[in-house]
Amino acid sequence: MRVSHRMVLHFPPVVTGHPITYRLARDYNLVFNILRASIGPEEEGLMVLEISGEEDDYRRGTEYLIAQGIRVQPLIQDIRKNDDRCIDCGACVGICPTKALALERPSMKVVFDIDQCVACGECVPCCPVRAMELLF
Amino acid sequence: MAKTLEEINEKIRSGRAVVVTAEEMVDIVAENGAKQAAQRIDVVTTGTFGAMCSSGVMLNLGHSKPRIKFGGGEVRLNRVPAYAGLAAADLYLGATALPDDDPRNAVFPGEFAYGGGHVIEDLVAGRRVLVEATTYGTDCYPRPDLTTWFALDEINEAYLFNPRNGYQNYNVAVNRSERTVYTYMGSLKPQLGSATYSSAGQLSPLLNDPHYRTIGLGTRLFLGGGIGYIVWHGTQHSPAVERNKSGIPMSGAGTLAVLGDLKQMSSRWLRGASFRGYGTTLIVGLGVPIPVLDEEMAAQTGVSDADIQAPVVDYGHSYPEREPEIICHVTYAQLKSGSIEVEGRTVPSAPLSSLPRAREIAELLKAWIAEGKFQLTSPIAALPGAESGLVTKPMPHDPPSGNPSTG
User: Which residues from chain B sit within 8 angstroms of residue A108, using beta carbons?
Assistant: First the structure.
């Protein structure tokens, strides 16, 4: 069965020299889409990836990443709309490039669909009451 | 047959008043006509919850021992400068005030994480606020400085006093320039990439009584979760702008100066807010009940989003340069649908004021009135109307060369 997941990878400095995504494609047959990458010398690297493939390949590919010392987290843990702070003003809807943040009609409430999110981070400073939290 | 306000208040006192929100009134008038609606409905409630930058609080902290005179000195609340030019212990804190060390737009666009609006939210939420004051000593007020904490329930008077709230219609912001602009109407994508609007439309107070027949000085209203009153027309009140054939203004027109007891209010309805690249402000919840005195009031409170036009203005060049161009008009029905047509292009439109919260305010007011807890007031004096010819003026002696002495 084909699966598709968005995940955040945290690379310890020693691993950043290895071609991890090449291995995922070549050895585990996984299609990857890099949504964000921030890797510099001597520091922890960060990559947000969308990975698709057969379920078994996905599981083995994830095990490979973990065996390399990479911390793997589903994206959903890293981006949050704080519903206690949100006032449904819609400012974020205006700025979101993928409609992950959208207005539900007829209620006109703001709903966050994490599956559409590419973690661009624009909603965070745009929200007037700081209800969007990006935790990586 | 017209009703009087006193008759309506009598029905409120005896629990017999028929109260609906302005959105419910749209359907009632559409289905039954204004005449029947006027007979059946007694009060229509309105609501809005959006950024209102001309807002602030008037505080009296009480006197220290020995006494200190704030007036003529400097006072900061949670590091945000307050205005101390009145008496010894009176202060005014505005929503857009910023701490001295806020970098503003030094690294553009600035974040503006904390300002006057946030201090007001902190106060109303019951959190303690730091006061730091330095001033000059006098025989009667010998103390030169002071640092202390206070909470809202510990001080004397605290009024929310907002010189310009409840705008009757407002601009739709777009950006025709080549780069993203960061404004009080949000971050606007270049080349007509996005449009924003900040009005509740058919639920908005002054759009439901466009000629201010029932809304005036002394009108009691929902303000910040408590009770407030209209005390004057607001700054930049512009009743004589162009109106459509139903009398609805086609650009920002009337405004309200409102005042209320901060101690009755809640942080659900008063929120400090930050607009990237612009600054801080206060998001205010406001709602006005409108008595349906006659058929004309029924027709006006039955106004729908499709009947209200808003002006599309370019914030990339026209607005900052104070050029009067209006690109086109769109209705609130079009705006609320999520996209509008501007110069032949489909532009995504998003709100900045919260319609769910505006609806909640109209429902809350409806409940207060239906429960007999809130009676309506009759204006003691009218707001200037369109016949006054009043339109807001630009700043005087605006020197084109930028040199004040040759202007």
Answer: 336, 351, 354-356
Same domain, A88 and A72: no
> Cα B53–A102–B20 angle (5° rounding)?
65
Q: What is the side-by-side order of every strand in the sheet holding B328-331?
A: B328-331, B309-314, B172-174, B195-197, B345-351, B339-342
Band (B399; pLDDT cuts 50, 70, 90)? low
Q: What's the structural domain count of chain A?
A: 2
DSSP, collapsed to helix, strand or coil, labels residue B291 as: strand
Q: Give yes or no: residues A86 and A57 share one domain.
A: no
Nearest to B149 by CA among B161, B138, B133, B136: B133
Please report where in the chains the tokens 């994830």 appear, as a residue.
A62
What is the phi-psi region of residue B121: left when phi exceeds 0, alpha when psi lies from -120 to 50, beta otherwise?
Answer: alpha
Specify whether A45 is located in the same domain as A26: yes
| Domain that residue A60 falls in | 2-77
Q: Is B328 a catalytic residue?
A: no
Q: What's the structural domain count of chain B?
A: 1
B116: containing domain: 56-159
Return d(Cα B206, Cα B271) in angstroms, integer. 22
CA nearest to A99 within chain B: B348
The ipTM of this complex is 0.92
User: What mean pLDDT comes out for the span B371-385?
Assistant: 97
> A126 and A86 in one domain?
yes
The conformation of residue A22, written as its DSSP 8-state character, comes to H
pTM score: 0.90
Residue B235 within a domain:
no
